Amino acid sequence: MTPARVSVVIPAYKAAATIGMAVHSCLADAAVSEIIVVVDGPDPVLQDAIPKSARISTIVNPSTLGAPAARNVGLRRANGKYILFLDADDYVEDGLITGLLQAGEAEGADIAFGPYAFALASGQRIDVSIEKSIGRPTPASVMKAWFTGDYVPCCSVLLRTAFLHEIGGWNEAFLKNQDGELMWRACRRQPVMASSTAGCGVYVQGQPSNRVSGNATAPALRQQVDFLAHVESELTPDELLHLSKEIGTMYYRLARLAYYNGLIDIGMDAEAAARRRGYDGHSGSIWHKAFASLLGLRLKERLCVRLHKAERALGVLRPRVRLLSGIDQ
Fold first, then answer.
1. Starting at the edge strand that comes first in sequence, how are the strands of the sheet with 116-119 ordered?
2. Taking each helix axis from N to C terminus, what angle separates 237-260 and 218-234, rounded to the nearest 10 degrees?
3. What percent of the chain clears pLDDT 90, i.e. is strictly above it?
4. Mean pLDDT for the chain?
5. CB of 59 closer than 8 Å to CB of 37
6. Residue ranges per domain, the chain?
7. What integer is the mean pLDDT of 99-118?
8. Using 50, 70 and 90 to split pLDDT, how confident is the model at 318?
9. Looking at domain 6-210, which of 2.60.40.1120, 3.10.20.740, 3.30.830.10, 3.90.550.10 is its CATH number?
10. Residues 22, 270: Cα–Cα separation, whole Å
11. d(CA 252, CA 272)
């Protein structure tokens, strides 16, 4: 039996309304030999909504296990030389996977990256050029981009399946930013990387309740701060010097997210770590920098919470571009 070229694994939770688009977008790509939908806990409505095709298989977890575990279930079943993970409300366009496969095979790559877009709840779409996001992909450029929020979502990342097994698959203990943690372990192995400019992977924002991933609780954000400290401890002095500003940026983003969610102690720890890494002042929009400088980051974010509550009460919907960093997944 000839192995499948590309396996697509789709973890799905309460995703009956979107699973059809996700699956059909993959069926339209000739490079996809199999699609494995992992239903994360019995859901008859969702199971009935999964399109029927000889290329589709469905696995139903007996209980809800979470995104990393659901992805590992699919990984263990996958036959493809390469594998792509797609959330159940995301989709791919215009031969993205074929382009990734061609780039990966041409370079003998362990990981291939492609163009992507953020589809916001407001209806706005932000397309991102892979050249501007990470440039020519190397472990160093990919990690630098990840620390500053220019991560490539997993809907546009193709991995060599054997390589993913070698690094241990997805970390099932990780509560948030699982693909960032995965990419960190991958980059420490100095993988061969490639990129493609074909097609697009569309990462849909705004339906966290329908995602298997997504978590802004105290345990999740504390884990992120602790993980970043662990990353620092693993870097050589030269690597740490080279990435100090970028690591500070990620600590700062964590501080913003923690303050916004009322997690003051975590926010203070993350902000202090950012300053320790030499992160001065504030970054973001002119509005944010002005008010954060005037009021302090903590108070500014709490005022944002009140503003957003008022907007929701009035039915105002604005794009939340600031939520597009890797730590906010």
1. 91-93, 200-204, 116-119, 125-128
2. 170
3. 79
4. 90
5. yes
6. 6-210, 218-328
7. 97
8. low
9. 3.90.550.10
10. 36
11. 9
Check: CB of residue 176 under 8 Å from CB of residue 222.
no
d(CA 195, CA 180): 18
pLDDT in tens, 115-173: 999 999 888 999 998 888 888 999 999 999 989 888 899 999 999 999 999 999 999 99
Closest CA to 82 of 68, 94, 96: 96
Say what the pLDDT of residue 316 is.
64
Looking at residue 321, its pLDDT comes to 42
What pLDDT does 317 receive?
Answer: 55
Q: In this model, does residue 188 exceed pLDDT 90? A: yes
Q: Find tokens 């943690």 and name the residue.
A: 181
Give, rounded to a whole angstrom, the gap between the first and last alpha carbons of the chain: 38
pLDDT beyond 50 at 107: yes
Q: What are phi and psi of 93, to 5 degrees?
A: -135, 150
